[in-house]
Amino acid sequence: MNHFDPQPKNNKPKYKGKYRIDSTRLPAWSYASNAGYFVTICTDGKKCFFGEVVQGEMQLSPIGEIAHKLWYEIPEHFSNCQIDSFCVMPNHIHGILVINQIREGDAMNPRTLEEDAMNRVSTSQRGDGERGGVTGLFNPMLSKNSLSKIIRWYKGRCTFEINQIYEGFGWQGRFHDNIIRNEFARDRIRQYIINNPINWERDYEQPPHSPL
After folding, report:
1. CA 53 to chain centre
2. Alpha-carbon distance 92 to 76, whole Å?
3. How many CB atoms lie within 10 A of CB 70?
4. pLDDT per residue over 90-131, tens digit each?
5. Helices (H), 12-83
6. Distances from the Cα of 58 to the Cαs of 44, 64, 107, 153, 162, in angstroms?
7. Cα 46 from chain centroid?
8. Quick one: which of 82, 47, 89, 55 has its CA closest to 186?
9. Residue 42 backbone dihedrals phi, psi, to 5 degrees
10. Which residues pair with 93 in a beta bridge?
11. Residues near 206 by beta carbon (within 8 Å), at least 6 away in sequence
12. Do the beta carbons of residue 180 and residue 210 sit within 8 Å?
C-alpha cells in the first residue's frame, strides 16, 4: 500500500485529540457491586521493581516491601473492601479483592457473593436500545468506592511512597480484572496465586493472565 491508497477510517471517538482505547471493563456491571475480583497490576514496561524469585520463592526488594505493606492497608481506607489471597511478583501483583456493601453478617458469605455476581450482571441490550444491566449508560468503574477507585488509591499511594526512596518507578496505566462468579473459581484463583512464584520461570516471558 502506498500513501495514495485509501486508508481505513477510524470511527472511534477521540479524547484530547487521541483515539480512545476500548475499555476492558464489563459495561453492564457495576464495579462497586458485591463480588470477588481477581486483579492483576503490572509495573510500567514490566520492569522488575519488586524483587526476584529465587528457587520458587519471592524475595522482595525495598520497593516490593512497600507494595506488599500497602496492599494490607486497603481495607483501612475502604471499609467495603476485604483482601483475600495475593502475591507481589517481580513486575506485577496478583490479588483477590472482595467488595462487600451488605450487612456485617453476610460479609464473607460465598453464597451471597456468588448469587450477587450471577444475578446482577447482564451484557445484553434492552429493546429500547439502551445498555442493560445495573449501570445503564453510566461508566461502570466510577461508582463510589468501586474497584477502580480502590486500585487508583493503591497505585497512587505506592508511587508516592516508593518515590521517597527511588525515582523512576511507575505502573502500567491499566489493570486486569476478572469477576469471580463462584467459590470454585475463587479456589482456582487462590491456587494460581500461591503457585505464581513457582511458575515464574515458565511464565516470565508471558503476560500475566487469568487462570479462568
Report:
1. 22
2. 22
3. 19
4. 999 999 999 887 544 444 454 544 444 443 333 333 333 333
5. 62-72, 74-77
6. 20, 10, 31, 25, 19
7. 16
8. 82
9. -110, 150
10. 41, 88
11. none
12. no
